[in-house]
Design a protein that fits this description.
The chain is of the alpha+beta class and about 260 residues long. The protein has a single domain, classed as Immunoglobulin-like, CATH 2.60.40. It is about 20% helix and about 30% strand. The chain has 4 helices and 14 strands. The strands form 3 sheets. Strands 2, 3, 5, 6, 9 and 13 form a 6-stranded mixed beta sheet that branches. β7 and β8 form a beta hairpin. It is elongated and about 50 Å long. The two termini are about 35 Å apart.
């Protein structure tokens, strides 16, 4: 169950950190206010002492509401609650809201025919995905025909190896959390990544909507026709054709195009 919710858990952590940062800033402002010299408090104390000294000479029918008004809260200021620092439309149970997207995600190979021993480089790409901040995919292939490897060195991928980075979701300024849950013996690559500082990413106003998320090499073990494709998995309950995409508000994106499969030979 934990593995099936890894990307969601990482996103909740990222959102929580952003909200804590926002709350910390607000608390700092409150502390600054409380540390101001209590000039008015001193004046009020003098007035209260004078009133106490003259209490016997005060008429019995005096209106006592004036001092209470000093502590009253204007109800108009409490009608509209202050929004969180992230303005994130997350439900009370921390479940991301679903948002429609017209973008796409696909696997793009540098070649579609290869002899035994050759390595095919396959890019995981997205296009026109609004405000992308996190993703996870489940990719399946025939391990008797293809071997997942580092695209540059040819080193076989282990079950805990993060595929080579692409050119988006790699900005160290926002911090990243990688996700890996492969089973290379069965021909399954399950991986993803999320930014940590959603607030900063959003406030900078430079969303990463199009580009390469990761690059995987596939070494041809046997020269025969085979496929590389996205597949739903128990490790990603509720995925969209074996993919998860989330925006910088933590919203789960839906109805984008998943282009597949990639056919080799």
């Amino acid at each position: 169950m934990i593995k099936s919710n890894m990307i969601r858990l990482c996103i909740i952590i990222a959102l929580s950190l952003s909200m804590l940062c926002g709350c910390g800033s607000n608390k700092g402002s409150d502390n600054d206010t409380k540390q101001s010299p209590p000039v008015e408090a001193t004046k009020n104390e003098d007035i209260n002492n004078e009133t106490k000294n003259n209490i016997d000479s005060t008429p019995a029918n005096i209106d006592s509401t004036s001092t209470q008004d000093n502590h009253a809260v204007n109800p108009e200021n409490t009608e509209n609650p202050v929004s969180s620092a992230t303005n994130t439309p997350i439900a009370s149970d921390n479940t991301p809201v679903e948002v429609k997207s017209e973008g796409n995600i696909q696997l793009v190979a540098d070649k579609y025919t290869a002899a035994k021993g050759e390595i095919i480089k396959v890019e995981l790409t997205v296009k026109d995905v609004p405000n992308l901040a996190a993703y996870q995919v489940n990719i399946e292939y025939d391990p008797s025909v293809l071997q997942a490897v580092d695209p540059d060195t040819g080193t076989p991928l282990a079950n805990d190896t993060q595929p080579k980075d692409g050119n988006i979701l790699v900005n160290s300024k926002y911090g990243t959390i990688p996700i890996n849950n492969h089973n290379v013996e069965k021909g399954i690559l399950n991986f993803g990544k999320t930014y940590i500082n959603f607030n900063m990413y959003k406030s900078d106003g430079a969303p990463e909507n199009t580009g390469v998320l990761a690059v995987v090499g596939f070494k041809v073990l046997e020269e025969k026709s085979t496929f590389i494709s996205f597949k739903d998995s128990d490790a990603m309950l509720g995925s969209f054709f074996g993919t998860f995409l989330f925006d910088w508000d933590g919203n789960k994106l839906t109805e984008y195009t998943v282009a597949q499969p990639v056919r080799i030979n």
